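Let us work through a complete example step by step.
Step 1: write down the sequence.
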Amino acid sequence: MEVETLDDGTELAFGMEVFSSDDEEMTETVKSIRPVGTVKAPTDVLDVPSAGGEPAGAVNEAITQWLKFGTGDSNFAVGYHYDMLHDLERNEAYRLAICEAVQDPDDFVLEIGTGSGLLALIASESKCQHVFTVEGDPTMSTAAKRIVEANGYEKKVTVLSKLSTDVVVGWAADMPCRASVLVAEIFDTPLVGEGVLPSFLDAHARLLEPGARVIPHRGRIFVAAMRSTKLCSMARVEPSIVESIIGGSGVGPYIHPKTSQEPSRVFQCHAGDLMQRGQVELLSDPVEVLTLDFADPQALKAGYEADANVVLTGNGPVDGILMWWTLDMTPSGSVQLTTSPFEAASSDQPPRYHWMQGACVFSSPLELIADQTFNLRTMTRNGGWDLFFDVPELSGLVDVKSVDTVMSEFAYPRVPRPRLLQLSIETRFHFYISDIRKAIHNDDIDKSLAFCLGDGCVGVAAALAVCKRVVVCTWSEEAAIALRNIFSGQMVVSPDKERISIYAPEFNQTAASVAAEALAGKLPNVIVCEPWHHGLAVAGTTWGLEEVALVQREVSKLKSDGAVAADTPVTPRIVLVARAFELPEYYRRRQTVSQVEGFDLSEFNESAPLWRQFDVKRQSLAGWKPGWRSECLASVVSWDGSRHMEACAAVSGPISGPGTVHGVAMWLEDSGEVDRNEHADPLDMPSSGIITLREAVVIPADHAGCQRSTMHLTLQCTSLDDLTCNLQFDSTDQQSDRS
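Step 2: predict the structure and record it as tokens.
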């Protein structure tokens, strides 16, 4: 290898030094690379301190935790990768930006976040010399390697199965020299939640040449003031409702560190659809509150704090803000990607699932009128992983010191949004009361004992409103602590007697064993179930039926073990509702992939199969315009746990044609709605269960309106994360498994 030293000390290397390596494939790949330009000794590269003052170990740990939480344990990422691969606008924007940025045959391209390998393949078709792409999830990196090989680019694309913060630059290392181009698509709804700031800072410090081109070039965050009862109900519960439910116990709002949303955090919503429905009213023009210059290492940082004035164009109250972002893919901004709700509301394109709009609901509304101004502070915290908003006029929503020390929470909600929505519906509380009264004979109410199973507070509050004594068994100690705080004012009615006792099972302990201990031989008059499994709810990845199956099993065991009488009534009555729909574009997006941007990605279906991913069934039809192929078909769900091995729920009914069935939306309701012949609108739900058929079912014209065209849906939960769905249409079976 020849090295020429310039007057400024820069070393230019020509040729390649052959080195020994156990990895023959890597050796052959590196032999073919001719690094040209700035080359520094590995020690110089590796000793650069991590950006933002964070210890390198802390950054690595944060990324590792996110990968474990988001992909490695729950396969959370794989499902939305299919949505991204079907996002034609996203793919085209990256192709145009890469073609503009990569013009030199000596360019080395570094990609952070390989995913399926699509962007690395697009980069490999440019004029660059070589592409190094980094993926920290072993499942995804394995899939990407196979896809690269299947397309014949293994000599030009190297997939590194590690975190970018672990990549080493130098001879016989991961990369022979620093890269001249960085490509990454590690963005979420709040823009920063997938670690783009610490990853890019580390890349600039160790992995990129000075002046390296970065795709995207910059990111800009926008906000607008808004008023929305709908979004408020997804972030907080009004004190008046809680006082009504709890019975004036002085608990106040349902806000507790372990059970409530932090009002300053951003949560996802399809704001364009909500605006079209009149459920969100914007009260200001868009305001650009933060610009992230990804290409400038001097300006980029992990901890941002920027103030902006928001001028109202309409009268308040102001409930909070909507936020979205725009990526300038090129320095000039000629190519852009945006999550703007205005584009989503005006476009005929259906909404994205991998990127939505963000909402931040203030702890209390701002009483302002048109032309008045409020100050909004935008902050990134937790090493650049979290986005927060603060309104100083509300005495500050964010304790900066506390959020800076929390590395494991990220932006995921502590209470699922559907749970907060349920708590915001006061009629649900009265429905529980009515069902409990019906289950208990009037003569027994004064001495009645209720056994509550679940983590929610509505069923417990309703039981307290009817019964003399209440025993509660939650799924977790955390939930038990929260309920004890909520009902602390009603725990003890006399020095020697508790009106309510709250328990949590210890490790490997069942609800039946807890009940045997807590009830002390006394048989309850009623079992009150409020299915909500806290462990799954932390990630917001469940829509309800798995929890019902869990309760069914516990109820069955309670009765078989004799902890409760076999004829003990179980409340409330709940129903499964299903509705078949025709939606070609949704069907296309939920199918396996083949040719994407001219590359064969079919190997991705084998390495990361769509049909076995947990999040496939947890989606919303908000923003879509389905053609309904059936009415709402409803069936009461039995709490009799002895039936759950056969099916935890089933529903059937007529479907209509002519047309095609692409999928089925399903959700749970209190049976009070069914009694009134009313059903929820699946287009208005933040989350429901969606079954996408593997093969669409065509309903012929001559079957239109015929009773013999019937859909049969049977659901069985063999475990909390294994839901089997069996669909039958007349004599045609369409079976879809989700696990």
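Step 3: interpret the result. The longest helix spans residues 56-72.
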